[in-house]
# Entry
Amino acid sequence: MTINRRRFLGTVAAAGAASGLRAQAPQWSSPVIDMHFHMRGTPEANAAHLDGCGVTMANLLTQAGAVDRVRAVQERYPKRFVWYGSTDITKPGAEALLTQTIKNGAGGIGELKSHVEADGPELRRMYALAAELDVPILIHFQEVPHTENEGTFASGFKRFEAILKEYPRTRFFGHADAFWANVSADYANQEAYPSGPIKRGGLTDKLLSDYPNLFADMSANSGNNALSRDPDFTPDFLKRHQDKLVFGSDCGCTDGNGGGVAQANNPAANRLSGKCVARETLSVLQKSTSPALFAKLVWENAHKFLRLPA
Ligand SMILES: [Zn+2]
Ligand SMILES: [Zn+2]
# Structure
């Protein structure tokens, strides 16, 4: 009779899912830290996303000066949240503000997303500052505007090798459209999110191989797209750069299950509309790796970079 009882419970669970009851959080084969999680309005809203998609911890991306709000989240949910600070780097005083943020306990600088060149004076000051403070710095690289007036961010990624040479003590974390589109050697800034097979030997792949100071977060539609577009490419790419990559979502959905708006009304990213980016990317990663490698990418590496106890 135990078999029948088990079968009965299975049927009840399936019926619950089919009738659209709140979907259960997925169980990943390792605890997960989401390294690219923009802080939400209330402590509860932050935890709701993590709980909904089965994520253990998150790195809150905040504006410098948000230290009280960060502490409120950390007090409400102990051991679940660490944080980075960012600011408008085109304004005077950015270095002092970010220095104070690190002194207040932030683990890194970012994400930096400004309408400047990747090798321009504003970002150069930040690269030097990150080295001096000995913290990672997370950059949003984007060459193709998603909407008419959006503009570009940290433009000129094709020239980034010179920066990696010039700032060997800076730990750069790349992210966003241009960073991930350049995994393919045929990318020429023609669109935000290219699809189809990846031409081997792309700039991002090469820089990750050649420069010990370059790392990446796999967040957002950009990261998900790069890992999804060519299943023959992904497992080896993840293996090759296993010491350089961390999981992040950059998801905007409310519940960790695709509710609300996942990718900030970005029309170019509608392949993920109605979905939770964290769930989607964790699924791709789990499918493309061994359990040991998955644990490294979604948990262990981030602990190493943030110098957190494992
Ligand atoms: Zn970004
Ligand atoms: Zn989500």
